[in-house]
């Protein structure tokens, strides 16, 4: 799938006149890379170069065009930005030079269809409590325990993020991060039925309740307690604002700039080597390409202490992959009555198993779960740019293994079997979408499906994962974070903390704090 993101100079055109020495070099231009670069430039006065292998900036925040439609790749809804004191809102305002606007989704931003019942989720602990009590009126005590743990876990997360890994074992946060979501909900006394409803959004952090850390679930849930929002102008507006803020301070962001390796001398990073052999120097190198790529591909095998971390990363493994159905509609969201709230198809835990998804891919049964977002209904600028049109995106989390046999084939040139499988899955998903959103009948003009191989091709994530490393208890116990064994080398983005726009941005904040040796958390969020 072709992607058109934020306009930027390419490495091919810039390399002849580009300075060879920089204060900092960032590998990867997703949210994690761009936020870190902007913070270093704005708060530290550093000259920062961002290198992106793809031909568009933004990572999973980028968009792409088809005919008369523009689709979002990974931005569906964002929390924690609803007012000037909201932490993520403050961080993004700082990193973008206050260039970004946010549009609220409807107050009840999630409509969950659970085996014939509809549950509406709105922001705030009281609203969440009321929704759960209506669904399970006999579980008041368990619900209160659960919501209290959500609140406490979210409050303790930032301190754990910034703590030295050697001291994390004694952190109170570990009582939440060391247990799986399923086990913790059972210990709190939630019935299997209510636990299934409460974990409907497990795709937001890329792991089933049986394998995810409760900390990941809790922080992903708490992220929306202040409501849900969408960037005005779409996902491209995020990267566009970040790049503008970076370039305003003398930084550069280049596309088609594939890095082959991180150069080092002993235990110190020196810069990067491009795939064309060009060497660039910087005392600070930040990888926002993900822990798997950083430790498995960008660093040589004999780098000191890297081997042990490489094995930790391999043991943790990747988060889940997904297929996404992009649907273009021939009428506006307002004409169709689409208000912008997300729609979920949810079900019991036993029907979410990876084996069931593999059976779906094998053609034996249909998908049991689904997430549908309506970005065109949430972007006030969409209709002016695409008059008479609307879009929706439907996603299904799934394992990468059924797609692994096609990893050696090229995007846009995959064999007929691959295209036939996508076509069948698209029909299955579209049928579910029609049931969740009957308003779209008669307006479907364009349908296209991406696979985990699409994500792999355009993001560089080896298993098509959208949430970085698996957010399991082992992930939170590991040493993987913004610090690395090499002096001058840091990790940013999702694998520095959590997934999503918020997780990647706070991973970047922690990374920039280490580089500048300053408490940017306090300076940016409370200054």
CATH topology of the largest domain: FAD/NAD(P)-binding domain
Specify the CATH architecture of the largest domain: 3-Layer(bba) Sandwich
| Cross-sheet strand order for the largest sheet | 7-6-15-16-17-14-18
What number of structural domains do the residues give? 3
Share of residues in helices: 25-40%
The oligomeric state of the chains shown is: single chain
CATH homologous superfamily label of the largest domain: FAD/NAD(P)-binding domain
Tell me what you see in this structure.
It is built from 21 helices and 19 strands. A hairpin with a 2-residue loop joins strand 10 and strand 11 (268-274). Helix 2 (31-44) packs across helix 3 and helix 11 packs across helix 12. It starts with 10 loop residues before the first helix and ends with a helix. With 527 residues, it is an alpha/beta fold.
Which helices and strands appear, and what pairs or packs with what?
Layout: H1 11-14, E1 24-27, H2 31-44, E2 48-51, E3 63-66, E4 69-72, H3 87-96, E5 102-104, E6 108-114, E7 117-122, H4 125-135, H5 140-162, H6 174-177, H7 181-188, H8 192-198, H9 214-222, E8 229-231, H10 235-248, E9 252-254, E10 259-265, E11 268-274, E12 279-281, E13 284-287, H11 291-298, H12 306-316, E14 321-329, H13 333-336, E15 342-346, H14 354-361, E16 370-373, H15 375-378, H16 382-385, E17 390-398, H17 416-436, E18 444-450, H18 452-459, H19 473-477, E19 489-491, H20 500-516, H21 520-526
Parallel strand pairs: 1-2, 1-13, 2-9, 6-15, 13-19
Antiparallel strand pairs: 3-4, 5-8, 6-7, 10-11, 11-12, 14-17, 14-18, 15-16, 16-17
């Amino acid at each position: 799938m072709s992607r058109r993101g934020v306009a930027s100079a390419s490495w091919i055109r810039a390399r002849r006149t580009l300075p060879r020495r920089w204060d900092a070099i960032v590998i990867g231009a997703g949210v994690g890379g761009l936020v870190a670069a902007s913070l270093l430039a704005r708060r530290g006065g550093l000259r920062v170069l961002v290198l992106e292998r793809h031909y568009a900036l933004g990572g999973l925040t980028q968009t792409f065009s088809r005919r008369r439609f523009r689709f979002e790749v990974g931005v569906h809804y964002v929390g924690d930005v609803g007012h000037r004191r909201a932490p993520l809102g403050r961080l993004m305002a700082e990193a973008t030079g206050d260039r970004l606007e946010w549009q609220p989704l409807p107050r009840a931003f999630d409509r969950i269809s659970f085996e014939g019942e509809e549950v509406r989720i709105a922001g705030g602990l009281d609203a969440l409590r009321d929704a759960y009590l209506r669904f399970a009126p006999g579980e008041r005590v368990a619900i209160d325990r659960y919501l209290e743990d959500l609140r406490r876990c979210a409050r303790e997360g930032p301190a754990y993020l910034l703590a030295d890994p050697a001291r994390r074992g004694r952190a109170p946060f570990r009582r939440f991060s060391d247990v799986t979501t399923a086990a913790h909900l059972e210990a709190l006394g939630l019935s299997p039925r209510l636990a299934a409803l409460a974990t409907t959004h497990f795709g937001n952090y890329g792991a089933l309740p049986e394998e995810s850390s409760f900390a990941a679930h809790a922080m992903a849930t708490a992220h929306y307690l202040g409501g849900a929002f969408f960037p005005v102008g779409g996902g491209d507006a995020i990267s566009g604002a970040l790049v503008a803020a970076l370039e305003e301070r003398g930084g550069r962001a280049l596309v088609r700039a594939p890095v082959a390796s991180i150069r080092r001398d002993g235990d110190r990073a020196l810069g990067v080597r491009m795939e064309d052999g060009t060497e660039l120097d910087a005392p600070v190198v930040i990888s926002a390409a993900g822990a798997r790529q950083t430790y498995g591909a960008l660093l040589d095998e004999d780098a000191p202490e890297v081997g042990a971390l490489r094995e930790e990363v391999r043991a943790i493994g990747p988060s889940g992959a997904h297929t996404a159905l992009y649907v273009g509609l021939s009428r506006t969201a307002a004409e169709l009555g689409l208000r912008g709230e997300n729609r979920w198809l949810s079900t019991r835990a036993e029907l979410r198993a990876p084996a069931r998804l593999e059976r779906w891919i094998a053609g034996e049964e249909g998908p049991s779960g689904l997430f549908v977002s309506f970005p065109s209904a949430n972007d006030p600028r969409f209709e002016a740019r695409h008059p008479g049109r609307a879009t929706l995106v439907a996603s299904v989390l799934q394992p990468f293994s059924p797609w692994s046999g096609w990893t050696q084939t090229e995007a846009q040139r995959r064999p007929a079997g691959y295209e036939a499988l996508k076509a069948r899955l698209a029909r299955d998903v579209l049928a579910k979408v029609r049931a969740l959103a009957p308003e779209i009948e008669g307006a479907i003009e364009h349908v296209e499906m991406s696979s985990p191989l699409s994500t792999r091709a355009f993001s560089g994530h080896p298993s098509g994962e959208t949430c970085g490393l698996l957010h399991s208890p082992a992930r939170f116990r590991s040493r993987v974070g913004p610090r690395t064994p090499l002096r001058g080398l840091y990790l940013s983005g999702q694998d520095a903390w959590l997934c999503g726009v918020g997780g990647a941005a706070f991973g970047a904040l922690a990374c920039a704090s280490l580089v500048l040796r300053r408490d940017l958390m306090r300076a940016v969020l409370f200054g």
